[in-house]
Write a structure and sequence with these properties.
With 272 residues, the chain is mainly alpha-helical. The chain has a domain at 14-124 and 155-223. Helix content is 69%, strand content 4%. The chain contains eleven helices and two strands. The chain has a two-stranded antiparallel sheet with strand order 1-2. Helix 2 (45-66) packs across helix 4 (96-120), helix 2 (45-66) packs across helix 8 and helix 8 (180-195) packs antiparallel against helix 9 (200-221). The longest helix has 25 residues, at 96-120. The protein is globular, with a radius of gyration of 18 Å.
């Protein structure tokens, strides 16, 4: 496979990997501190949710930015966070310690998967098809009975294991806020941006704005919403190169996208 043009990655160093792990650790430490002070605070429910959602989105973005170029073999390391999540779920672990473990596992696994895929993108224009397919799949997954996100929302244990948690400030409760898929796609867009020497300021601003709009809509509608369509649209607006797939990518990508749309629609219709 050809290397991405204008690659903004150097060879990953041990220091860069430690920086990534340190960023994950900082997110876990922030959760711990927030949980310790949360019951003593007087915060309205909307403000508590807004601060919590901003915190987990900021963690996902920071970890994606800290991730060095992951070689494909790095995916073997997923056995640790995925195995830990399975063990936590099987044990029905709850409480602050479980929330800290879930935070670490989801940030590690989500960013590693997303970053590996993002670096594999050969041309920025290919991200257009990533946006289209991920948005369609995310909407169906949430709103179609039988969809993965729909089923996760119906299962408290699954939600606790697959969404980044944060304390609802002013209460002793820790609530799931952001799905692991959103963590993965945040890392994907950040990694692809760096690999193709696009503007990181544009990408960071676009992702932050998309998360902000998602938060505002969730608070307004008082209902779960898919974040991937907004993340993808924000990236398309921010990065013009993503809107210009090559002729070869169009020949390969359009039929593939259509086929995936059809398959996903049939799967969810059948499961319904």
């Amino acid at each position: 496979m050809p290397q991405p043009s204008g690659a903004g990655f150097g060879s990953p160093t041990l220091t860069s990997w430690w920086r990534w792990l340190g960023t994950v650790g900082a997110a876990v430490a922030a959760l711990l501190v927030a949980a310790q002070f949360s019951p003593r605070l007087s915060v309205s429910a909307p403000l508590a949710y807004g601060l919590g959602f901003a915190a987990v989105c900021g963690s996902a973005l920071a970890v994606g930015l800290a991730l060095p170029r992951p070689p494909p073999r790095a995916l073997f390391a997923l056995v640790v966070p995925v195995g830990s999540l399975l063990a936590l779920s099987a044990a029905r672990a709850v409480g602050l310690e479980a929330a800290m473990a879930v935070t670490a596992c989801l940030l590690l696994a989500g960013s590693l998967v997303g970053g590996t895929i993002g670096y594999a993108i050969e041309h920025p224009g290919q991200l257009l098809f990533v946006v289209l397919v991920s948005a369609f799949a995310d909407v169906l997954s949430l709103y179609q009975p039988g969809g993965v996100s729909h089923e996760v929302l119906q299962s408290e244990q699954a939600l606790l294991a697959l969404a980044l948690p944060w304390p609802m400030l002013g209460t002793p409760y820790i609530e799931p806020m952001l799905g692991v898929g959103d963590v993965a796609f945040t890392a994907l867009y950040v990694t692809a941006t760096r690999a193709h020497a696009l503007s990181m300021v544009r990408t960071t601003s676009a992702l932050a704005a998309a998360f902000l709009v998602t938060m505002a809509l969730v608070m307004w509608l008082e209902s779960a919403l898919p974040a991937l369509p907004l993340l993808g649209c924000a990236m398309l607006v921010a990065q013009p190169a993503m809107r210009r797939p090559s002729a070869e990518d169009r020949r390969r990508g359009v039929p593939l996208a259509v086929a995936l749309f059809v398959v996903l629609a049939l799967v969810f219709m059948w499961r319904a």
